[in-house]
């Protein structure tokens, strides 16, 4: 989503200011490095709702005690291809990137590396971790469940979180194939961004506290599942997939039981979020060379398929990489609240 009337700043300057704010908040070097890596990724590819605008929130949670400033990650191998990472209630990005590394180590031996994460916090953009695995040559899946903010299909109360599903795969040339999608119509941070910019929401993505669809970001109390009013049963079911992997398999918190990310007075109690990462080594299946040849042919066929008049087709990730190229050249747009907090 383009941020209208926003000011743009070069990546290096934003990175410096985010680093400064997290350092002031007391985040350890390892945990803040991971958080910056994930947030900058999101801001560069146009997922502004999960980009550097979250710096202020994370600093507040570090100051309040919800987030451990100096987490000591734990890793416990549970099987030939499975492990659990303990995030020690630190920034979730730190635990997630560690889980990708553990998954790669397992996959190189067992073919697959399934890694659950417990005692974690907000994950940010799930695609950042799927991408981290793909950039090293592995097919990677990452997901998390979050606090209730999305109605069920025909529901009139918050039940699931936005519960993203992210997949990435290496390709012969260029950047990886990347799919990063929320199972809600939009993420909550998109509503907050629209409030900051005082812009209307698209139709059919949010609802009032009574479950009535609304495009007013100031009246929106909950989100609608992917598919909206008519086909939201698909998004609601997919949200349950994220909960299955992230909460049920890891023994962590169910969506309705979370301390809310925003609102409320408690910013000292850890949220015990769960995440899940699955890493697959192509060498242990068809073979890396055959896989890369196949995905290369697949993408060539996809991008070369016929389109309707005035239309275009893209592979997952094509839009993101185009946005990244533009923002690396022209700068990253930031909303007014983020500009203020970062001191830009």
Automatic annotation (TrEMBL):
InterPro entries: Mal/L-sulf/L-lact_DH-like_ah, Mal/L-sulf/L-lact_DH-like_NADP, Mal/L-sulfo/L-lacto_DH-like_sf, Malate/L-lactate_DH-like. It comes from the Bacteria. Transmembrane segments: none annotated. Keywords: Oxidoreductase. GO terms for molecular function: oxidoreductase activity. Belongs to the LDH2/MDH2 oxidoreductase family. This is Malate/lactate/ureidoglycolate dehydrogenase, LDH2 family.
């Amino acid at each position: 989503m383009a941020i209208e009337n926003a000011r743009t700043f070069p990546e290096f300057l934003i990175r410096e200011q985010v680093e400064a704010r997290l350092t002031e908040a007391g985040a350890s070097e390892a945990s803040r490095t991971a958080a910056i890596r994930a947030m900058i990724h999101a801001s560069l590819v146009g997922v502004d709702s999960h980009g550097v605008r979250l710096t202020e929130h994370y600093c507040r949670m570090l100051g309040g005690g919800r987030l451990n400033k100096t987490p000591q990650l734990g890793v416990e191998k549970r099987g030939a291809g499975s492990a659990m990472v303990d995030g020690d209630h630190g920034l979730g990005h730190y635990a997630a990137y560690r889980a990708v590394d553990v998954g790669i180590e397992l996959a190189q031996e067992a073919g697959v590396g399934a890694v659950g994460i417990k005692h974690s916090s907000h994950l940010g953009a799930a695609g950042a971790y799927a991408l981290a695995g793909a950039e090293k040559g592995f097919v990677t899946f990452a997901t998390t469940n979050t606090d209730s903010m999305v109605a069920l299909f025909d529901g009139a109360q918050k039940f699931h979180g936005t519960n993203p599903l992210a997949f990435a795969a290496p390709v012969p040339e260029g950047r990886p194939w990347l799919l990063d999608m929320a199972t809600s119509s939009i993420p909550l941070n998109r509503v907050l961004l629209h409030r900051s910019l005082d812009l209307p929401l698209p139709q059919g993505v949010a609802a009032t506290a009574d479950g009535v669809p609304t495009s007013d970001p100031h009246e929106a109390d909950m989100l609608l599942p992917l598919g909206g009013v008519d086909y939201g049963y698909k998004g609601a079911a997919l949200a349950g997939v994220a909960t299955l992997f992230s909460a049920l398999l890891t023994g962590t918190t169910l969506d309705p039981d979370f301390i809310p990310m925003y609102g409320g007075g408690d910013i000292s109690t850890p949220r015990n979020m769960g995440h899940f990462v699955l890493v697959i080594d192509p060498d242990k299946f068809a073979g890396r060379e055959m896989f890369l040849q196949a995905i290369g042919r697949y993408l060539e066929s996809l991008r070369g398929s016929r389109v309707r008049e005035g239309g275009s087709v893209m592979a997952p990730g094509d839009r993101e990489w185009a946005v990244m190229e533009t923002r690396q050249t022209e700068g990253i747009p930031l909303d007014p609240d983020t500009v203020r907090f970062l001191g830009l």
